[in-house]
Amino acid sequence: MTEEISDRFYYTSRCLVGTLFLLSAILKFISIESFESYVFSFGFFSLKISSYLSRFLLLAETSLGILLITTVGKKWVDYLCYFLITLFSFFLFYLLYVGDDGNCHCMGETFSLTPLQSLLKNAWLLLLLLFGSKCKPFHIKRERLLIALVLIGSFVFAFIKLPVGLGQSKETKFNEQLYRKLQEEYHELKALDEEDKVVLCFFSVKCKHCKMAMRKLEVCLKKADIQPTVQWVVWGDDAGLQGFMEETRVNPQNHFFLTPEKMMPVTEYNVPLILLMQHGQVKAKMSNATFDETACAAFLNTQDAN
Fold first, then answer.
1. CA–CA–CA angle 26, 28, 29 (5° rounding)
2. 63-100 residue pLDDT tens
3. Pairwise CA distance, residues 88 & 263, whole Å
């Protein structure tokens, strides 16, 4: 009887780890674009690699979560879980070392956890996994087939939202004629024609796609050899902009507010809109969906962008 109770306790501990793995994957999936932008923000990988890497992390968490609960491939699944938790913990220690106390995205954007909170969570996971590794595995026929099905299902789940570079790219819309009319009314925009390199951003403080695009742009600006003039045209107010900057950790050089009635016709009723301009000429236009890291870097890092 005691042995049966112990085994139930061990299996319950294992299920808790597996459930948390699955919950983590689901919450990351809900805000996958935000998660890939977070990976990209460290500047270690390109946007495309960050997009794929974020989805492979979802694949790993989903498949390991299911396999933990089913006890299939118990020994090597346990080793992989120990490795993954340890790897994440080293990353969290790195964040603490560099003084980053923001959301580490371990649970996506639904539950904001600091690196220290996530480290404590990982310590509990390791303890639970230590108990869970002692439970007896189920006797399941065709384990290899089940593992294959779990991996295939996890892959479909992780990649159902296509990474950057796959699928049909959307067209970035921009009404230049209305923009030129807007310049006559706002001297901040007219003055940009005199600048050599300008990054002009139209966005709403409440738009999640705007937040993602500005995070991507911020990474490119930090890597740039030449620092351009950056002008924000904002739909919102001071309080909304302050919240936007706190959440994205992006700070504008220059900004002014514009009503949606005046902004949206210029952007063809789509935000965000990022324009790369030189002496008043639009060299490239991007949205969050069409953000091109290579084109942005080429514009910023050349003396004469044609």
1. 60
2. 999 999 999 988 999 999 999 999 999 999 999 998 88
3. 42
